[in-house]
Specification:
The chain is of the alpha/beta class. Helices cover 53% and strands 16% of the residues. The strands form two sheets. Strands 3-2-1-4-5 form a five-stranded mixed β-sheet. Strands 6-7 form a two-stranded antiparallel ribbon. Strand 2 and strand 3 form a beta hairpin. The longest helix has 30 residues.
């Protein structure tokens, strides 16, 4: 979290509404809101903009997480020394509903983020730019996932072809050849991912994989989450980390009539949650010795 003494140094708060190849920039100038759009063709344009605007350690920049689109501005402002916060869009949406706003435009969204940052500055968690190694690993993992999806699609297609009474040997042979090629590519990409891991990353992943049910993919995703979390060694960090990855339990009770069962918040990192679910499902299945979907 952003410390109180850090807030005293910050003189400028900025809200960014991110879009593809552009963002809406909102801030305060002489107690008045300034709001304009900046478009760019390449990431170097963003670095030039940051330099031109005089972004430094006294700036607090808040934006919503928008996948890869928010990565370039977040890293550019962070490298200039600004404290950058990449917030969960659902949190900002709830803040907007609390204010009873009914208008949604890029300009209004940037001003919303500006007001959100001003009111919640002490509760915000700073963005930590991923290392060059981790960025490359993520790109290779995305490619790996696309290869796996492609392989599954061809396997499904092959299964459907084999249902015909007269099976075309040519089609079957071609699809099997494609599947074999994809399998070889998957092996190559997995090896390339392992080669990129440095000693610290490799040791951490080895430690993670010592947990039953944790394999290469889950260990890599957990390692990503650790790298994006500031203060992992601080007291009480375990509870904050569980909340950070969206696994913290949520309770909903009101009076004597409303008592809903607890559930996870589902507020962040859906890919990691999906992988953890499969591991947990397997563990429960093995522990009970029966279907995990059976109510016991």
């Amino acid at each position: 979290l952003i410390k109180n003494n850090s807030l005293k140094v910050m003189k400028k708060i900025i809200g960014l509404d991110i879009a593809k190849k552009s963002f809406q920039y909102a801030t305060f100038e002489n107690d008045k809101k300034v709001n304009f759009k900046f478009s760019y063709d390449k990431k170097e344009d963003v670095y030039e903009f940051v330099k031109k605007m005089g972004i430094n350690e006294s700036c607090l920049v808040v934006m919503e997480a928008t996948g890869t689109y928010s990565m370039v501005p977040a890293i550019a402002f962070s490298k200039a020394g600004a404290t950058v916060v990449v917030e969960n869009p659902l949190v900002v949406k709830r803040f907007n509903q609390m204010r009873r706003n009914i208008t949604k435009t890029d300009k209004k969204d940037a001003e919303l983020l500006l007001d959100y940052a001003k009111m919640n500055s002490e509760e915000l968690r700073p963005f930590q730019a991923p290392s060059a190694e981790l960025q490359k690993i993520k790109q290779r993992r995305l490619f790996l996932e696309s290869l796996k999806s492609e392989k599954q699609a061809y396997e499904s297609r092959l299964e459907s072809i084999l249902q015909y009474d007269e099976v075309d040997d040519f089609a079957v042979a071609e699809i099997k050849d494609l599947i074999n090629n994809i399998v070889q590519r998957i092996k190559k990409v997995k090896e390339a991912i392992r080669e990129l891991a440095n000693e610290d990353t490799a040791n951490r992943q080895k430690l993670l994989k010592s947990v039953p049910g944790v394999g290469d993919v889950l260990a890599e995703l957990l390692n990503d989450a650790f790298e994006g979390f500031i203060g992992i060694t601080e007291p009480g960090a375990s509870k904050k980390f569980i909340k950070h990855i969206g696994l913290a339990p949520s309770q909903h009770e009101s009076g004597t009539s409303v008592k809903k069962g607890g559930h996870i918040t589902r507020s962040a990192l859906p890919v990691l949650r999906a992988k953890l679910y499969m591991g947990a499902a397997a563990a429960v299945h093995r522990a009970k010795g029966e279907s995990i979907f059976k109510d016991t």
